[in-house]
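Review form for a predicted model. The reviewer records the input and the model, then writes brief findings.
Reviewer: anonymous (R2)
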Amino acid sequence: MTDTNAAFTPRVFSGIQPSGGLHLGNYLGAIKRFVDMQGEDFQTVYCMVDLHAITVWQNPTDLRKNTRELCAGFIAAGIDPEQSILINQSQVPEHAQLAWIFNCVARMGWMQRMTQWKDKAGKNTQNASLGLLAYPALMAADILIYHATHVPVGEDQKQHLELTRDIAIKFNHDYGVEFFPLTEPVIEGAATRVMSLRDGSKKMSKSDASDMSRINLTDDADAIAQKIRKARTDPEPLPETLDGLAERPEARNLVNIYAALAETTADAVIAEYGGQQFGTFKPALADLAVERLAPISTEMARLMGEQDEIDRILTRGAERAREITAPILKKTYDIVGMVPPAI
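Model under review:
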C-alpha cells in the first residue's frame, strides 16, 4: 500500500497531558510550535489529553484545575480558539471509541516494546494499569479520529507516532481500504528538548525537586530573570563555533533556549555571542525570556480567574471537533462491520 496522505485534508493534531506545572520545556518543545503551525496551510486541533492523564491515579480536583490551566496556557501562548479547535479529550467520545477498535488492531508485542511503558511500569508491571499499557492505542486514536496528517511531537513521542502509523497500516491492510492516513511526525526547532537549568544532562521537568531547575509558565518577570541568571554554567566563555558546545551541556542548553525564544538558530547565537562570558550572555537571555514569557504568565493568571470562559471555549471546541470525528468513527464502524442504528 502506498502513502495516500495527499488525498486527506492537511490537518495537525497534538496534545499535552494536563498533569500540572507547565514550564519552558512544554512551551518551546510543543506549545510554541502549535502556535506557529496555526499560520500554515493546516487545520489545527489541539487537545488536553485528560484520558491519558488517568493512566496513573489523579486527584479529581487537581485534574480539573490542571486541565483548565493547560487550556489557559495554550491560549496565553497564542493559540486562537477560533482559528484552532481546542478541546479536552474526554468531551469528544469518539477518541475512546476508536481506541477500542485500535486495541483490537494493535498487537501485545507492539505495546510491550514501548519505551515509555517500560519506564513508567518499571519492574512490577503487574501493578501497572491496563490503561498505561494501552496508552499508545488511545494516542493513535486521538490522531487518526481526525485523519491528522501531521503531529508536532518531541523526540520522546516519536516511537508512539511510529506505532500510530503501524496501526493505520494494519487496519487499512486488514480491511482492504486506504482509510487512515500515515501521519507524519513534525520534530523541528532549536529547542525541541529543553534541559534542566541546574543539570544540562537532564530534561527540564516539573518533578525536579528544585524549582530553580525550570522556568514555569506561571513565573513572573522577576522569577524568570533570576532563574536565568542563576542557571548553572561553566567558567569558559561561549565558543566561537557551534562544535565547541559539544561537551558543554549547560552552555548548549542556554544557547538553544535563546535561539528558540529569538526564533533564530544556534549558529546565529554563537555568531553574535561567541567569545563572550556568561556575565554578558545571561542578562541578554534573561531579558529575552522575560519579553517572551512574562506576558504568557500574566494572561494565564487572568484566564484562570475567568474559568467560565475556559469552559465555554472547551465546550465549543468539542462541538467543532465532533463535526470531524463523528463521521470518521461512523465510517470506521461500517468498515469493521458494525450494524448502525436504524433510521
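Findings: The longest strand covers residues 11-16.
Further findings: The mean pLDDT is 92.
Recommendation: see findings above.
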